Amino acid sequence: MMKEDILTDKNVIPNSFQGILWSKNIEKIDLHKDKTYIIHQILAYGDMEDTRWLFKNYRKNEIKDVFIDCPRNIYTRPVFLFIKDFILDIKKKLNEKEYVKNITGSS
Predict the structure, then answer these.
(1) Cα(42)–Cα(3) distance, rounded to whole angstroms?
(2) pLDDT digit string, tens, across residues 11-56
(3) What CA–CA distance (Å, rounded) separates 29 from 104?
(4) Cys-Cys link to 26, which of 12, 18, 39, 42 (CB 3.0-4.6 A)?
(5) How many separate domains does the chain show?
(6) What are the beta bridge partners of residue 6?
(7) DSSP 8-state secondary structure symbol assigned to residue 81
(8) Which DSSP symbol is given to 107?
(9) Rounded to whole angstroms, how far apart are CA atoms 92 and 95?
(10) How far is Cα 55 from Cα 76, in angstroms, rounded to an integer?
(11) In this structure, is residue 71 part of a structural domain?
């Protein structure tokens, strides 16, 4: 990712995101280096306000590219479909198994 892909120059993530970005120290997260983690965690676990922040700090195409090219198996099926179909408006078919966590234990 080029530095221009991020819309703000500040590398500041709100402290309120610590609950969403729980596996890292919020003060040490880097918007450039940790973009895949940040994007997926906010899409999967954030609310609409958190998602607005995401779109203020990354371009929509950058978020879409990360979502498509670097799938994470952390979404519930309804959240995956909402993000894919409505938030990111992705028309191409994606392999749901790469995104949807299996919480029932069945295949």
Answers:
(1) 20
(2) 589 999 999 999 999 999 999 999 999 999 999 999 999 999 999 9
(3) 32
(4) 18
(5) 1
(6) 58
(7) H
(8) -
(9) 10
(10) 21
(11) yes
Q: Is 58 helix (H, G, I), strand (E, B) or coil?
A: strand
Residue 77 placed within a domain: yes
Question: Which position has the token pair 């966590």?
Answer: 101
Rounded to the nearest angstrom, the gap between the alpha carbon of residue 72 and the centroid of all alpha carbons in its chain is 9
| Residue 40, both tokens | 């997926």
Give every CB contact of residue 60 below 8 A, 6+ residues apart in sequence.
Answer: 88
Q: Is the pLDDT at 61 greater than 70, yes or no?
A: yes
In this structure, what token pair is assigned to residue 1? 């990712």
Determine the pLDDT at residue 3.
43
Q: What is the largest CA-CA distance in the chain?
A: 45
Residue 11: both structure tokens together:
């590398």
Partnered with residue 75 across adjacent β-strands are: 100
Host domain of residue 58: 26-107
Report if residue 43 sits inside a domain. yes
